[in-house]
Design a protein that fits this description.
This protein has 359 residues and is mostly beta strands. The chain has a domain of 118 residues: TolB, C-terminal domain (Neuraminidase, 6 Propeller). It has 2 helices and 27 strands.
Length: 359
């Protein structure tokens, strides 16, 4: 009789574990705000994001959720931050008021905000790498914007500044977009700064170009040129991952393939194909994730089909970051007011299913 009871109990535990594992595999809300989450960043110590009090606010206040904490804290309540970059015990941000902005440093432990640079013209694309801050400034055209006519084009310049403060310097200038910088700075590899530039406003007639320039300044070099502004790229560990129109000649702009190239000098190779259009790439713990509004895929390290991890609606498919063995994303409708977590490890999924709360 005792043996049967033990067997039944063991079976129930197995069923409970299986159900908990299955339930813990999706995105679960861990934080909800009355405002709108517009920025997201993470490192091994925690998660940071920006909250707009209302959709028409110029920017957002800075909030942080430390790893293992149950509730977030507000690090900077002034709702004018438009972008953030995390580096150790500090968060760097862009404060924007109209077309002019400033670069600030905010301690993660709390305290006063340090202004590093001011009077920046339409700053965007903030990134930190090895103790140096990089960002773009875009000067609007003096008259109506006309592509390929330098005196009638907006101009974008990439700047660099030591994270501890000092004198900024311009690395490179190139034709910009009237609305400001639409791409992103990818990082530094072998003393070259890589960035993704996007031209045009529609998926059907835009271009996405990955370029690089020496960190000492100089002439930029184009590495990849892809049709459609919906493409994305990430740089990590000497490898550049980028999306491109599908290699299927039938409808190339409706789907994406993912390609990888060793930098500074390698040949691109295709890892997978037939991904939905207009997704964003996230690298976390050696894995590439492709995120769109209605799903997240894990991309293999060698050519193979991608793995669909979750099929759910995310309000902002580009706002995804990894921290503490899980992916965090912005969800909630209609404004994107919910921060959700999807565990990636077996133990994390099991705990999330049994106890749906932040680790």
């Amino acid at each position: 009789m005792l043996t049967k009871l033990i067997a039944v109990a063991a079976s129930l535990l197995v069923v409970l574990a299986a159900l908990s594992y299955a339930r813990g595999g999706g995105f679960q809300p861990v934080y909800t705000t009355a405002g709108q989450i517009v920025g997201l960043a993470a490192d091994d110590d925690g998660l940071l994001w920006l909250e707009k009090p209302k959709p028409d606010s110029p920017g957002g206040s800075l909030f942080a959720l430390a790893k293992g904490a149950d509730a977030p804290s507000c690090l900077h309540p002034d709702p004018h931050l438009t972008e953030i970059a995390v580096a150790g015990d500090r968060v760097f941000g862009i404060e924007l008021a109209g077309d002019l902005g400033a670069l600030v440093a905010i301690p993660r432990s709390g305290g006063g905000v340090t202004r590093l640079a001011g009077d920046l013209i339409r700053p965007a694309g903030l990134a930190e790498q090895a103790g140096t801050l990089y960002w773009t400034e875009t000067t609007p055209a003096s008259q109506a914007h006309v592509y390929h006519v330098p005196v009638l084009e907006a101009r974008t310049t990439i700047h660099a500044l030591p994270a501890g403060g000092g004198q900024s310097r311009a690395l490179v200038a190139f034709p910009g977009e009237p609305a400001g910088f639409q791409g992103k700075l990818l990082g530094v590899q072998a003393e070259r700064l890589y960035w993704l530039d996007r031209f045009g406003q529609r998926l059907s007639d835009g271009w996405a170009v990955v370029r690089r320039v020496p960190t000492a300044g100089g002439v930029p070099e184009a590495l990849t040129v892809q049709r459609s502004v919906g493409n994305d790229a990430v740089l990590e560990g000497g490898e550049l991952f980028f999306t491109a129109p599908s290699e299927d000649a039938g409808q190339p702009l409706n789907y994406r393939c993912l390609r990888r190239v060793q930098v500074p000098a390698g040949e691109p190779e295709t890892l997978t194909d037939w991904l939905p259009a207009a997704g964003r790439l996230v690298r976390y713990r050696g894995t590439t994730y492709y995120c769109v509004l209605d799903g997240v895929w894990a991309v293999p390290a060698r050519i193979a089909p991608p793995t669909l991890l979750i099929d759910t609606l995310l309000t902002a498919g580009k706002l995804v970051a990894g921290m503490g063995g899980g992916l965090y994303a912005v969800g909630g409708t209609p404004s994107g007011n919910s921060l959700c977590r999807m565990p990636l490890t077996f133990g994390g999924r099991l705990r999330a299913g049994l106890f749906p709360r932040h680790e």
